[in-house]
Amino acid sequence: MIDYKTSNIRKLREAKGLSQSDVAQSLNMGAGSYAKIERGENGMNVTRLKQLADIFEVDIVQLLEDDDQGLICFIKSGNFSGNIGNNSENNHYSGDSTVEIGKLNLIIEHQKQLLKKEQQRVIELEQWVEQKNTHIEALQSVIAKLEKDN
Fold first, then answer.
1. One-letter-per-residue 3-state SS of 99-138
2. Environment class of residue 57 by beta-carbon count within 10 Å: exposed (0-12), middle (13-18) or buried (19+)?
């Protein structure tokens, strides 16, 4: 189990100008269920945590950190396929190296996903530039022909 910082989720949602219903719809869940996540009443699986990070366009770490105390997530059993919940009794780092490795692996996985998206965007932009260069060359050819004819 990982404890997440519920206030971060709310703040990120509000900063994006999204309602709870907007986020719930993006997650394919009911607004009431999402509201329980923000209040810390419902746990989340890691997939849901990643989805929230993508919706808010932030790193997963921002969903787990405390503004005043740094990273406060607490992982029980090191099992990332389990649920994620908010437990105020355990709002500290456990000191277990397997926990730290698990957190870092989660962060790395999310960073890889963000990098893959950015690489795809670069490819799309390169293709767009190539098309525009082709158009420019065609227009330059037309201009040269018109200037020659005049």
1. HHHHHHHHHHHHHHHHHHHHHHHHHHHHHHHHHHHHHHHH
2. exposed
pTM reported for the whole predicted model: 0.47
Q: Alpha-carbon torsion 40, 42, 47, 53, what sign?
A: negative
> CA 92, 87, 19, 106 torsion: positive or negative?
positive
Can you list the domains of the chain with their CATH numbers? 6-117 (1.10.260.40)
What is the number of other CB atoms lying within 10 angstroms of the CB of residue 131? 10
Of 40-44, 54-58, 143-147, the least confident: 40-44
